[in-house]
Amino acid sequence: MPAPTYKLELLTPAQRELEEIAHVYLELAGADSARNITGQIFDSLERLQTYPLSGSLPRDRWLREAGYRLVISGKFVAAYRLLGDTVFVYHIAHGASDYPTLMKDHSHA
């Protein structure tokens, strides 16, 4: 795998959401499960440091026009934008949630 050339920054909402996901898995299935799911999500995000445009374009027109892309990791989806040499991760949500609305509600974050 080529060396990372882009920075990865999880913004505060995404950090909180990742912590909440870990907490839920810790309560439901234990520490190993929590480590596994958060590790899987983080591995998916780290790939963006080398391949920042590898995420899919959102179906939602507003998100697409605002320059967001999505990375799917298991049951979760992370919304991010590439700005300059940095990949900014805005939100991490369950794929079954209404994440386009979540993004629009928090677009000023």
Going across the major beta sheet, what is the strand order? 1-4-3-2
Category by helix and strand content: alpha+beta
Shape designation = globular
- Helix % is 40-55%
Low-pLDDT parts are: none
Query: Alpha-carbon distance between the termini?
Result: 33 Å
Rg from alpha-carbon coordinates:
14 Å
SSE order, one letter for each helix or strand: EHHHEEEH
Give me the count of strands. Answer: 4
Number of helices: 4
What amount of the residues lies in strands?
15-25%
Largest sheet geometry = 4 strands, mixed
Which whole number gives the mean pLDDT?
92
Layout of secondary structure:
Layout: E1 7-10, H1 12-29, H2 31-46, H3 61-65, E2 69-73, E3 76-83, E4 86-94, H4 99-105
Helix pairs in contact: 1-2
